[in-house]
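Sequence, please.
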C-alpha cells in the first residue's frame, strides 16, 4: 500500500492502479466533480503501524474518522504531530505516517484536489515545506468549518455538502483548472516513465513548466519520474519477488540500479529491505 501527495503509498497505488480496490473510490458528487480528483475511503486499522507517505504533487486532505484522533508523521527523522484533519502536497521524500489505533470498522477519508481548486478554496498554495501540515495551522478558519463533517454519522455526505457550499463562494482560474484536469487525466491513462506528458507537447514548453511548478511543485521531468516510480512500486507491492530488472524495464527505467536509487530517494530504503520489513 502507498500514500500519494502525502497520503499512505498503499492508498495512492490503490487509488491510481488497483482495480481490485476500486470500491475504495466513492462516487463524486456532480457539485464538486470539477474541483476534486476523487474522494476515497480506506480501512484505517488495515494500514498498519507505519505507512510510507508518497505524493504526486496533488493536494490531498486526510480526514480521520473522529475529531479527537491524532497521529504523527516522521519526515527524514523529524517528527510532526498531526490532528484529525491534515493535508499533504508537493514532493515527499523518506516520509512515514504513524496512524492512530482504531477499531476495524473506522474509515480513513482522503480527498484529492485539483491544485488550482485548492488554491482558490484556501486562498493560498498547498505546497509548503515540509509538505505535511495540520489544517488547523495552515488555515484556522477553514479548519473550524471542516469540523462540521463530524456532526452526525455521515462524514462523507457532510464533507461533500461543505465543499459544495465553499466552492460556490470562490473564483477559480479556469485556465489553470483546465491544465490540472488535462495533466491528471493523461497521467492516469499512462503512468509509465513520462509518456503521459506527450499530450502536453501541444502547449508552449515554458508555459507547461510554469504550470507544473506553480500547481504541483514539480517540474514536468520530476512528475514523469514520479509516475515511473509509482508504477514500479505498484508491481512490486503486488508481487515483491518480481525480478527488479524486469520491473525496471517495464516501467521505463534504464536499469534496475536506477529503480533501487529511486527507492532510496523516495523511501530511504532499498526495495528488498522495504518489502522484507513490510512482510515482517
Amino acid at each position: 500500500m502507498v500514500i500519494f501527495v502525502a497520503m499512505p503509498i498503499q492508498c495512492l497505488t490503490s487509488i491510481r492502479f488497483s482495480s481490485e480496490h476500486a470500491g475504495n473510490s466513492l462516487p463524486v458528487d456532480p457539485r464538486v466533480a470539477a474541483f476534486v480528483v476523487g474522494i476515497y475511503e480506506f480501512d484505517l486499522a488495515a494500514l498498519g503501524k507505519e505507512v510510507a507517505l508518497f505524493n504526486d504533487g496533488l493536494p490531498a486532505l486526510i480526514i480521520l474518522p473522529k475529531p479527537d484522533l491524532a497521529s504523527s508523521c516522521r519526515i527524514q527523522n523529524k517528527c510532526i504531530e498531526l490532528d484529525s484533519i491534515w493535508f499533504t502536497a508537493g514532493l515527499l521524500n523518506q516520509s512515514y505516517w504513524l496512524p492512530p489505533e482504531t477499531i476495524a470498522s473506522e474509515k480513513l477519508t482522503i480527498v484529492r484536489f485539483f491544485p488550482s481548486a485548492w488554491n482558490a478554496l484556501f486562498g493560498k498554495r498547498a505546497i509548503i515545506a515540509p509538505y505535511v501540515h495540520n489544517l488547523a495551522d495552515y488555515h484556522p478558519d477553514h479548519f473550524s468549518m471542516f469540523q462540521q463533517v463530524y456532526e452526525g454519522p455521515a462524514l462523507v455526505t457532510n464533507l461533500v455538502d461543505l465543499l459544495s457550499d465553499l466552492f460556490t463562494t470562490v473564483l477559480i482560474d479556469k485556465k489553470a483548472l483546465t491544465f490540472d484536469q488535462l495533466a491528471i487525466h493523461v497521467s492516469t491513462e499512462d503512468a509509465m516513465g513520462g509518456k503521459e506528458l506527450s499530450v502536453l507537447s501541444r502547449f508552449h514548453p515554458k508555459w507547461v513548466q510554469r504550470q507544473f511548478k506553480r500547481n504541483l511543485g514539480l517540474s514536468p521531468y520530476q512528475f514523469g519520474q514520479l509516475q515511473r516510480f509509482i508504477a514500479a512500486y505498484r508491481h512490486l507491492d503486488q508481487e515483491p519477488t518480481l525480478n527488479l530488472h524486469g520491473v525496471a524495464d517495464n516501467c521505463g527505467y534504464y536499469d534496475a540500479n536506477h529503480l533501487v536509487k529511486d527507492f532510496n530517494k523516495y523511501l530511504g530504503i532499498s526495495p528488498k529491505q522495504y518489502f522484507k520489513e513490510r512482510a515482517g
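The chain has two domains: 7-167, 174-279.
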